[in-house]
UniProtKB/TrEMBL annotation, chains A, B:
It comes from Halarchaeum nitratireducens. It comes from the Archaea. PANTHER family: COENZYME F420:L-GLUTAMATE LIGASE (PTHR47917:SF1), PTHR47917. This is F420-0--gamma-glutamyl ligase. Residues 9-248 form the Coenzyme F420:L-glutamate ligase-like domain. GO terms for molecular function: coenzyme F420-0:L-glutamate ligase activity. Keywords: Ligase.
Length: 284, 284
């Protein structure tokens, strides 16, 4: 029977400009040697650290626009400036106002949670590298004091480079998926922001089902399923498991995550149009 | 180091009114005996079969409204009738128009895929059991000819019942999560529609991060991460692995998936308001 194992790696705290591949290879070498067909899911945060993608907040130039946006969103104006630099800003979500009840209900410490909500009452909806994400992935959390972490400049390219370095040092032909935590309905989940050596979307669309009928489903987001599963092991806060080795999965070769922001934006616009027609037809 | 194993179970094709728990227990008994702390992820489809939640399309009464909605969405009027019976209809997504290029690119057989797109050009956005989903989960695929499968009436209750029966027959204290395939961005992913014996959302919000700062993230959708990971093993079409045993996960006790449609709808409305204010502030 098919069996897939998710094995978390404690590679210790990664500090800016550490050699990430060396840390992964030495940790796996001792406890779980890499082999062909493994998928390595890595949180974008440690890849950013290793690539030196940190910015000193006090070095950021803030414009009048950044101040105006900061005022209505509650986001630090220096972060606003970086988000506009890193992405196209499409909109904003008032997280605290929408989800306060749910968030406080699921808080470890209500006071600390309230403090976090006061600190970050809203998030910007952004488009970066062809994907929709919040705050362009810019993050103060798990970052050294006074610094923000930016996403890798080109996450697919980072995945490709990491995959090449891992093969060069171990001989193992693996796939690499970079993940980042994103809002998904009533909470958050890790989704794929870059990959190499694996097809991000499977190819079952239109295959016959159990009863030999063509099936419309089956456009499985394999790379996102891998990051979501790996998130069961990632430490979201004070844990230190930013790397998960997935073993036993059959997958196809491929490069890059799909450029999805176009399809999502077009889907939203066309769905609003069809919904208006639907609602008119329901009663007239 | 943390390690979580996803083990797929081939329980054979489940036919209407089969004893699902007997099939699971006898299959696991031979190859992978259940033990305390296992999480059993089951596709809603086989739970619906076992509960006899199938409907003969020709027995459905179709109203004038159903015909009007069918006309603009391309959905079979009998399916429209069942969807309105099963849920509140909030809107519609013109899937074929939005995603045709992507879907045909990822098709196994372009002709069969085109046929599937012609058959189901749109989907209805519905609210059911406090969750948003498409077509109220009503599905012709993997169903006997001329029949539609409906979701379990109360998926949390089904999970609770299955969990109790499994414990009664094996003595193992497991958790049960029911999953269904849903649209997620540019493809589909399995999400949790019911659960028992596990907290669906984890409780890390506001915990201190690596640098002792409170963190706004960490509202992890654990149940959805489990179903997404299990989807790597589920056969979406002609495969027969509708059950996945997840072993090695530490989780908290809890009942039920969150009632998320309110928060998602409120989030959408409030995000549109804040986005309008944001766009006004960007330039004026």
């Amino acid at each position: 029977m098919p069996e897939v194992t998710f094995h978390g790696l404690d590679i210790g705290r990664v500090d800016p400009n550490d050699d990430l591949v060396e840390r992964i290879v030495s940790t796996t070498g001792e406890e779980y040697a890499l082999s062909d067909g493994d998928v390595i899911v890595i949180t974008a945060k440690v890849v950013s650290f290793a690539e030196g993608r940190l910015i000193e907040a006090d070095d950021v130039d803030v414009t009048e626009r950044d101040r105006r946006v900061a005022e209505i969103t509650g986001i630090d104006p220096r972060e606003v400036a970086v988000i506009y630099e890193e992405s196209d800003v499409l909109g904003a979500i008032p997280i605290a106002e929408v989800g306060e009840d749910l968030l406080l209900e699921h808080a470890v410490d209500p006071d600390v949670a309230q403090e976090a909500l006061d600190d970050v009452p809203s998030m910007l909806v952004t488009e970066r590298n062809g994907r929709l994400c919040t705050n362009a992935g810019v993050d103060w959390s798990n970052s050294p004091e006074g610094k923000m972490t930016l996403l890798p400049k080109d996450p697919d390219e980072s995945a490709r480079r990491l995959r090449g370095e891992i093969e060069a040092r171990t001989g193992a032909d693996v796939a690499v998926v970079l993940s980042d935590s994103e809002i998904a309905g009533p909470g958050s989940m890790d989704l794929a922001i870059g990959c190499s050596g694996i097809e991000a979307i499977d190819t079952n669309f239109g295959r016959a089902d159990l009863y030999d009928q063509p099936k419309i489903g089956g456009v499985d987001l394999v790379a996102d399923e891998l990051t979501a599963g790996a998130a069961l092991l990632f430490g979201q806060a004070d844990e230190r498991v930013p790397v998960v080795i997935v073993r036993g999965l059959e997958y196809e070769d491929g490069e890059g995550v799909p450029n999805s922001s176009g399809i999502v934006r077009r889907g939203l616009r066309k769905s609003i149009e069809l919904t208006a027609r639907l609602k008119a037809r329901e009663w007239f």
